[in-house]
Amino acid sequence: MKYFSDSVINPYIRRAGYRRLCEVGASFGEHTARLLEVDGVSLVVVDPCIDLDLTKLNGDRVAVRQGLSLEVLPTLGERFDCILLDGDHNWYTVYHELKAIDESDLLRPGGTIFLHDVGWPYGRRDMYYQPETVPAPFVQPHARKGMVPGQSNLAETGGSNAGLYNAVHEGGPRNGVLTAVEDFVRERPGKYRLLVLTDQHGLGILQRRGGVGDALPFLRVWAAQAANRWRGRVRRALGRS
Predict the structure, then answer these.
(1) Residue boundaries of the structural domains of the chain
(2) Which of 18, 110, 157, 189 could make an S-S bridge to 81, C-beta 3.0–4.6 Å?
């Protein structure tokens, strides 16, 4: 997520005038520090604090709620301008995080959710930090083996993230972060707009529709991506790299 901080996320937050943020899945707190570079924002952090005891960040601008996202989110009881999801990268967790946000009305109209890892390798493949925390019917067959771009099956040796529990196959129903986001949006027609950035493992920008002015930061990113695609097509047509 921190890869997108300077280029997308923080400029978006500033342009939209967002002030109240929620970060789900902070790990070592590196992206938390980036978010706090935006003047005037306050932040609720939801994290089990396995990698680091983030409660030491508690202060005037930060409140840490230690625990699993699906247990903590329904208890927050407030609305946020922006929510950042970068926790467990599997269909069940992401879909139900979004469902909890929607049903608990945690995101105000015009607010935005940023989601990491909507591209390869976890856009269409589940990963489990703790498989036992996911209900068995929603757990894909998985193994501690790595992944290779363009290959559905896990690699026998090597590959990316070989030390994590990765779904044995890529694609199919209820498999992967982007699949979860698309399923969530499809069930709520007209309520959200979605933009997917594909570089650096992918960033999803999911905005709850609000007033006309609320759409401007979203449309600015959309226009920049469209321009990049157009320039790429021109370079390819001219035979340039």
Answers:
(1) 2-128+175-237
(2) 18
Question: Could you report the per-residue pLDDT of 45-91, keeping only the tens digit for each?
Answer: 999 998 899 999 999 999 999 999 999 999 999 999 999 999 999 99
Residue 174, both tokens: 């209820």
Per-residue pLDDT tens digits for 100-141:
999 999 999 999 999 999 999 999 999 999 999 999 999 999
* CA 197 to chain centroid: 11
Tokens of 142: 């998985």
CB 210 within 8 A of CB 17: no
Residue 185 CA: distances (Å) to CA of 112, 189, 213: 13, 7, 22
Classify 148 as helix, strand or coil. Answer: coil
- pTM across the whole model: 0.93
Rg from Cα positions in the chain: 18
- CA 108, CA 214: separation in Å to the nearest integer? 11
2-128+175-237 is classed CATH 3.40.50.280: no
